[in-house]
Write a structure and sequence with these properties.
Layout: E1 7-13, E2 21-27, E3 36-41, E4 46-49, E5 56-60, E6 67-72, E7 78-83, E8 87-92, E9 98-103, E10 111-114, E11 120-124, E12 130-135, E13 141-146, H1 157-162, E14 165-170, E15 176-181, E16 186-190, E17 195-200, E18 207-212, E19 220-225, E20 229-234, E21 239-245, E22 251-256, E23 263-267, E24 272-276, E25 281-286, E26 293-298, E27 305-310, E28 315-320
Antiparallel strand pairs: 1-28, 2-3, 3-4, 4-5, 6-7, 7-8, 8-9, 10-11, 11-12, 12-13, 14-15, 15-16, 16-17, 18-19, 19-20, 20-21, 22-23, 23-24, 24-25, 26-27, 27-28
Length: about 325
């Protein structure tokens, strides 16, 4: 039987930002440098960090409101940051040169992710209840995937606000997109046909984070919700495979290790948890943070590092073994 992964605290940086740290992702390694950790904060900055010492490489300024999301291109060469100022800034990771600025209506960008091949940036769009797809060669908007409105005589404004989109994830083959909404529904799209396929039901509160399992289980989708649960879905078969609970409050972030063997979550209960699929339970709880944990992210490749960021302004880095 495979042994379970364990986390050990490696390094924490207090006051990594001047305000809450809302978002984090890893920029893949290139031929000339290792993977870097990318963080974004309410303090309007984006920061790049060296992996093990968490040494600050650079601070990017330019947003005039808090940074809600950062995303890295699979090549490791470019990345993007999105802010409440409704701008998405695409930049060269090593030089900080601005490659493109994508404009969105106010509070229309909550999460974004590059597809696995790096040809498209998916931007999950708040009140428009849609995902916008940007071509990374031309930086033109190429498609808008809209969540169907609930059927009814007169859709009320209330029902439309519940479809507010908070999260987005690509399947590993780039053929499917999942997005999570304020009302707890998860919508699955066929990207090539720009077509809505179906909803995944089961959560009743906002779904703030989604991640697909790596191949070969690439139809498996993990979701994190304010209802305190992590769900495991068969995204194609529309079935819920399992539900895991253990956090004492909202689950704000979920990520899966590159080998698909472990799942990590961050919560407003201030903890990071590591989960075992077979036991459907948390096997480890890390209490490094003193406030809610907005993001957890495994380093791509070996998956031997996990990072977490929090409202307490700190970053924690863990060794995964």
């Amino acid at each position: 039987m495979a042994k379970s992964m364990k986390l050990a605290g490696l390094k924490s940086v207090e006051n990594a930002h001047d305000e809450s740290v809302w978002t984090a992702t890893w920029v893949p390694a290139t031929d000339s440098r290792p993977a870097l950790l990318l963080t974004g904060s309410l303090d309007e900055t984006v920061k790049l960090w060296k992996p093990d010492e968490l040494e600050l490489v650079r601070t990017n300024t330019g947003h005039c409101l808090g940074v809600v999301c950062v995303a890295a291109h699979p090549s490791g060469v470019i990345a993007a940051s999105a802010s409440l100022d409704s701008l998405v800034r695409v930049f060269d990771v090593d030089t900080n040169f601005t490659i493109a600025t994508l404009e969105a209506p106010p509070s229309e960008v909550w999460q974004m992710q590059f597809d696995p091949k790096g040809t498209t940036l998916a931007v999950a769009g708040g009140g428009s209840a849609s995902i916008k797809l940007w071509d990374t060669a031309t930086w033109r908007l190429v498609a808008t995937l809209s969540i169907p409105r609930p059927e009814g005589p007169k859709p009320s404004d209330k029902s439309s606000s519940k479809k507010f989109v908070l999260s987005v994830a690509w399947s590993p083959d780039g053929r499917r997109l999942a997005c999570g909404s304020m009302d707890g529904t998860i919508s699955i799209f066929d990207v090539a046909r720009a077509k809505f396929l179906h909803h995944l039901e089961g959560h009743y509160m906002p779904v703030r984070s989604l991640v697909f399992a790596p191949e070969p289980d690439s139809w498996t989708l993990y979701s994190a919700s304010d209802d305190g649960h992590v769900h495991i879905y068969d995204a194609e078969g529309k079935a819920i495979i399992g539900a895991m609970s253990g956090h004492a409050s909202w689950v704000l972030s979920v990520d899966v290790s590159p080998d698909g063997e472990a799942l990590a979550t961050g919560s407003s209960d201030k903890t990071v948890r590591l989960w075992d699929f077979k036991m459907r339970a948390a096997i480890q709880t890390m209490s490094n943070h003193t406030d809610q944990v907005w993001a957890v992210a495994f380093r791509p490749g070996q998956g031997d590092r996990l990072a977490s960021v929090s409202d307490d302004k700190s970053i924690s880095l863990y060794h995964c073994s």
